Amino acid sequence: MSVLFTAVSPDNPVQRQDVEKALVSLGVSLDPEEESDFHTLLAAVHDCAEEIQQLPDYQPTPDRVRYPREDIHRPTKEGQFSGQAWAYRFLIRGTTGAGLLSGKTVCLKDVIAVADVPQLYGTDIFPAWTPTTDATVVTRVLDAGANVVGTTTCENMCHSTSSFTSAQGTVHNPFAVGYSVGGSTSGGAAVVGGGLADIAIGTDQGGSIRIPSAFCGCVGLKPLYGLVPYTGISSGDAIDDHAGPIAKSVLDVALCLDAISGYDGIDDRCLGAPTHGLGTFAATMQAQHGLGGFRIGILTEGFSHPMVEKGVREVVLAAVHKFKSLGATVDEVSIPDHLHGPGLWTIQQRIAGSQNLLGRQHGRRGLYLTELEQHRLPWTAESFRRGFAATKNVVINGQYLVDRFPGLYGKAINLGRRLRDSYQEAFERYDVLVMPTAPMVAPKHGKKCSPIEALKSSMGITINTAGFNVTGHPAMSIPVGLAPSKEEPHLHLPVGMQIVGGLWKEDKVLRAGYSWERAFDWSQEFLE
Fold first, then answer.
1. Which of 78, 372, 412, 489 has the fewest CB atoms nearer than 10 Å to its CB?
2. How far apart are CA 369 and CA 375, in angstroms?
3. Can you give 71-116 as a three-state secondary structure string?
């Protein structure tokens, strides 16, 4: 506290009315005799802030000599794919040698920092900003021998599970133009689903890796919370932050997880994670044969929700029962609390997400992307007007909930722990739980004509995914068949099955997915 009692600088700009302004939003005021003292104290903390503001930031320094950035550019219309799947194209060559990802090509969701590559964030609320550091996952895939070939479109401020909301343009499903890729890792799923890259690294705060993977016939893993460092990746609610891979096979997902997992000395989410470089997910998975003695639980509530379409339900159920031929036992299990997952996620995401958007992110030890904050703050009437409906909704909802429901965020966190314990109790009897990833196949793109219309196509898509962001359990979507489109029944689109494991049990999730994938051809499994 001593810093606050140093002499106030003579050119300090703080005025007495600034004290009153600081209290206006709270609806409180000071006694007149206190105003002078609090003006002095405010002026002192302003000087302290100025001093800290003038210090150079402390960002990890990328190795541009070892990993030079080549040919950074925004793709032309001719250089695009599936509409606007690419954000920026470039090449960073990975290390040579026998690395885990040697020969693989990797693309990155456009919220993952790559030094010297402008980041669009899917928005036009603020101009593109250019990071000066590389996210930990970027360095790790390069160290593992992969070539990073570009950043891919994300949905507007990552606030949608559709793929028409990015200010840079619509991303089309590689299986059907005019249909959603899912979001918010939309471009990455399209690029991998379309065969233009081996692996995409995305982020998942409610289903943003798993939903696009399900819609695009890809494998997408949301790892255990804190297994993969979030360093250098923009955040919504730090409690829900997960980074992970999308690929065409479970093996590539496992190899990527080995390469990117483990504490990096920065992100406090990962304090309990294993040492980086010691991951053996891929090797362990490949060494196991069959599923003898494996116990699989069909999560009743994940199938019975009224939003789950008949075709999706039938394809996933058929896929689950195929596990029996691999030696597994399959039973139904009911976890009623599963139905509360989306509501708990909504409350914590709206409150914490709105605070983040307003520049009030705090309470974590890690890397803060201060350059991004300087670009997007402060909000103005004009920047808010340009915001996509979902972003405006987060701000409105969050401000309302904070004012009207004191303590609700904390209660949602507490109940999230109860939800976690409900799943953990089931994992004492089952190795994994399974359910549809998304309740439908990819829908047609929504419309931006009004807020309700803009949000309608995303509503309910995360009923089976968001709860596992609340609890942190590892969850993976694998393609298991095709089902008819609701809009065009003659069109068959991919169906994803979500496999969920207990805490720290990625090995079981990967084993189940790998065994199914090796035994069956999902592209031949379809419902007429």
1. 78
2. 10
3. EEECCCHHHCCCECCEEEEEEECCCCCCCCCCCCEEEEECCECCCC
The whole-number pLDDT of residue 1 equals 46
**Residue 173, strand partner residues:** 176
Residue 24 has pLDDT above 70, yes or no: yes
> Phi and psi of 234, rounded to 5°?
-70, 145
Residue 366: predicted pLDDT: 94
Helix (H) or strand (E) holding 64: none
The 10 Å Cβ neighbour count of residue 163 is 38
Catalytic positions, please? 109, 184, 208
CA 196 to chain centre: 21
DSSP secondary structure letter of residue 217:
T
The torsion angles phi and psi of 4, rounded to 5 degrees, stand at -75, -10
Sequence-ordered list of residues with C-beta below 8 angstroms from that of 189, at least 6 positions apart, any chain: 181, 182, 200, 202, 212, 213, 215, 216, 218, 220, 246
Domain parsing of the chain, residue ranges: 2-54, 70-524
Query: CB-based burial of residue 91 (10 Å sphere; 0-12 exposed, 13-18 middle, 19+ buried)?
Result: middle
Percent of the chain whose pLDDT exceeds 90: 94
pLDDT of residue 98: 86
Residue 2 has pLDDT above 60, yes or no: no
Instruction: Enumerate residues 6+ apart whose C-beta is below 8 A from 323.
Output: 291, 294, 296, 330, 512, 515, 516
Q: Which of 68, 69, 64, 251 is nearest to 151 (CA)?
A: 69
| Structure tokens, 25 | 């939003």
Place of tokens 């920092």: 113
Structure-token match 């000066």, residue found: 132
Q: Return the structure tokens found at 239.
A: 């409690």
Report the sign of the C-alpha dihedral through residues 42, 48, 54, 58, in that order: negative
At 209, list the tokens.
Answer: 């890796």
The DSSP letter of residue 179 is B
| Rounded Cα gap, residues 54 and 453, in angstroms | 45
Percent of the chain with pLDDT strictly greater than 70: 98
Q: Please, is 289 exposed, middle or buried when counting C-beta atoms within 10 Å of its C-beta (0-12, 13-18, 19+)?
A: exposed
Reading the block at residue 490, the tokens are 């003659």
Residues 350, 418 contacting (CB under 8 angstroms): no
Q: What's the CATH code, domain 70-524? A: 3.90.1300.10
Average pLDDT, stretch 12-37? 92
Instruction: Give the pair of three-digit tokens for residue 101.
Output: 């990802």
How many H-runs (helices) and E-runs (strands) does the chain carry? Answer: 17, 12
Q: What is the pLDDT of residue 41?
A: 92
**Letter for the amino acid at 79?**
G
Q: What average pLDDT does range 229-240 have in this prediction?
A: 93
Q: Is the pLDDT of residue 528 over 80?
A: no
- Say how far apart CA 341 and CA 471 lie, in whole Å: 9
Three-class SS state of 295: strand
Instruction: Give SS3 for 155.
Output: coil
Nearest one of 97, 108, 93, 8 to 49, comparing CA atoms:
8
C-alpha–C-alpha distance, residues 137 and 19, integer Å: 43
- Rounded to the nearest 10 degrees, how much is the dihedral formed by the CA atoms of 163, 510, 149, 109? 40
